[in-house]
Specification:
The chain is an all-alpha fold and 257 residues long. The protein has 3 domains: 5-69, Multidrug-efflux Transporter Regulator, Chain: A, Domain 2 (Orthogonal Bundle), CATH 1.10.1660; 76-149; 159-251, Globin-like (Orthogonal Bundle), CATH 1.10.490.50. The protein contains 12 helices and 2 strands, in the order ααββαααααααααα. β1 (32-33) and β2 (39-40) form a beta hairpin.
Length: 257
């Protein structure tokens, strides 16, 4: 079936202006222009628009979407499968949050008793899922599946008080890193070594067990992986990840220099 801009906009729930913009940026070109000058869209364009809207819902930029759907390797079935899995994960996340809200409402009404752990269970699971999505492959390869699962289990069992304390320690660690950077970025300085010790304390809330080798290895990852580097450099300042890595190497006695 063929559609004009007006017809396709009504079908898909997007504005005619959006379709014209997609045409202008070569994201969704019409199949043809008819004798009256109207853009005409066919089945292929309908399927592509569906893909564009799916990718938009999943947070992709229009620039990235264009690169994906017009790549030689693009396969619509593969794309739909990936989108389906992502949406299922999002559905599971929302269901957890809904369940937490429902329990909280029932608790406030006096219908059930709700433990402090249950109040934050959904939020912590979201944090675990986000960490797994971003770093799961690397940390499993480096530390092993069992260690990672134990770490997640320990984090999930944290009380709200312990979690808040871990956040406070991390904030203090960033503060000491900033001091060390301003004082010349000496990894042996008092501020840098305090940051290394605070980092160890912070890890104790999430790691099932501690070792100097694992601590130094994690710090090395902060420099080798740009995602970790950006996290620390944004939090404390440029070269913060490198400074923390060097400070931890000295702190653990595993410095190569």
């Amino acid at each position: 079936m063929n559609y004009t801009v007006k017809q396709l906009s009504e079908l898909a729930g997007v504005s005619p202006r959006t379709l014209r913009f997609y045409d202008k940026m070569n994201l969704l070109r019409p199949d043809r222009i008819n004798s009256s000058g109207y853009r005409i869209y066919g089945t292929k364009q309908v399927d592509l628009l569906q893909q564009i809207l799916f990718f938009r819902e999943l947070g992709f930029s229009l620039k990235d979407i264009r690169q994906i759907i017009y790549a030689d390797t693009f396969d619509i079935v593969h794309a739909l499968t990936g989108q389906y899995n992502k949406l299922l994960a999002e559905k599971e996340r929302l269901n957890r949050l809904i369940a937490t809200v429902e329990k909280t409402l029932a608790s406030k009404k006096g219908e059930i008793a709700m433990s402090d752990h249950e109040k934050f269970e959904g939020f912590k699971k979201d944090m675990i899922d986000a960490n797994e999505k971003k770093y799961g492959k690397e940390i499993r390869e480096k530390y092993g599946k069992e260690n990672v699962e134990q770490s997640y289990k320990k984090f999930d069992s944290l009380s709200q008080e312990d979690y808040e304390q871990s956040v406070k320690i991390q904030e203090e660690m960033f503060s000491e890193l900033k001091k060390a950077l301003l004082d010349g970025s000496d990894p042996q300085s008092a501020a840098a070594q305090k940051a290394a010790d605070l980092h160890r304390q912070w890890l104790s809330y999430f790691w099932a067990s501690y070792s100097k080798e694992a601590h130094a290895g994690l710090a090395e990852m902060y420099v080798s992986d740009p995602r970790f580097t950006a996290y620390y450099d944004i939090g404390a300042g440029k070269n913060a990840a490198k400074l923390l890595r060097d400070a931890i190497a000295i702190y653990t006695g595993l410095s190569k220099s």
